[in-house]
């Protein structure tokens, strides 16, 4: 069942929560916690919000936000996207990625087109 539509009006206060899928951890390492906290000042400034309180837990967070403009949906989309991008970039081990591409190249040695694509990706990572 879809969630109810969010009321989006200027000047309202919102209690916003964002949780990991199936309540899984969303902040794994200190760098991810720090990245999210570093996003908050830009989040407030860019969307002209008033952040009254926030709480971070390993699998979700809460925000108490006042939105003088009716732009909370756009603001949350921005925050979630940048949080996820930070999460992705924080854990990349390029040596592991390169080794995986080598295994794929060996498996796909009979398909020259796919092998060329794998080599192009590997060059971008090295």
Indicate the topology.
Layout: E1 12-19, H1 30-46, E2 50-57, E3 60-67, H2 72-90, H3 94-107, H4 112-125
Antiparallel strand pairs: 1-3, 2-3
Helix pairs in contact: 1-2, 3-4
Tell me what the structure shows.
The protein has 126 residues and is of the alpha+beta class. It has 2 domains: 12-90, Transposase IS200-like (Alpha-Beta Plaits), CATH 3.30.70; 94-125. It is built from 4 helices and 3 strands. It has helices spanning 30-46, 72-90, 94-107, 112-125, and strands spanning 12-19, 50-57, 60-67. The protein has a 3-stranded antiparallel sheet, with no helix packed on it. A hairpin with a 2-residue loop joins β2 and β3. The chain is elongated, with a radius of gyration of 20 Å. 9% of the residues are buried. The model has no long low-confidence stretch (mean pLDDT 79).
Rg, rounded, reads 20 Å
For the sheet with most strands, the description reads: 3 strands, antiparallel
Order of helices and strands: EHEEHHH
Name of the CATH architecture of the largest domain: 2-Layer Sandwich
- The N- and C-terminal alpha carbons lie at a distance of 45 Å
- Sheet-strand content, in percent, reads 15-25%
Structural class: alpha+beta
Sum up the overall morphology in one term.
elongated
Using brief descriptors, characterize the structure shown:
single chain; 126 residues; alpha+beta; Alpha-Beta Plaits; 2 domains; three-stranded antiparallel sheet
Summarize the model shown.
This protein has 126 residues and is of the alpha+beta class.
